[in-house]
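Sample intake sheet
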Amino acid sequence: MSKRIILIGKAGSGKDFFAKKFIEKGFKYATSYTTRPPRTGEVHGTDYVFTSREKFEKLIKMDFWYEHVSFNGWNYGTSKIQFREADIFIMTPSGIAKLKEEDRKESLIMYLDIPYSIREQRLKLRSDADKVDRRLEADEKDFASFTDFDVRITNPDF
């Protein structure tokens, strides 16, 4: 039986939408830490724990993270405490690659593999800390050989 659900997908795939649906059903969400600036409307502690690069790196030295990655010049991470206590997560391919074998066995990984054109439209509608083309290009590289998932959702109509 899975102890946790991990959502993964490229930008604009619907990860936040699905996370909110799980939260509404009583799941405990692990709010990721990041060094990237907030998007318009994002709330510290709800959408992300926004932190400085200096503090993030200090936490690396303190062995605070279960997993942490660098993506597109920013850092993202999940603390060890969050990984033990929460049951819904959003991760990247490199974050999933860092799962311990026993933790991977206890995880259900849902890959939101939504068509490029749909994601591009969604990204153009939101205020983002990154340029749409740069983010889409970075995601293509990040997901180039990603295959470690249990469920793959390709229908964007959810």
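Comment: The chain is about 35% helix and 20% strand. The two ends are 25 Å apart (CA to CA).
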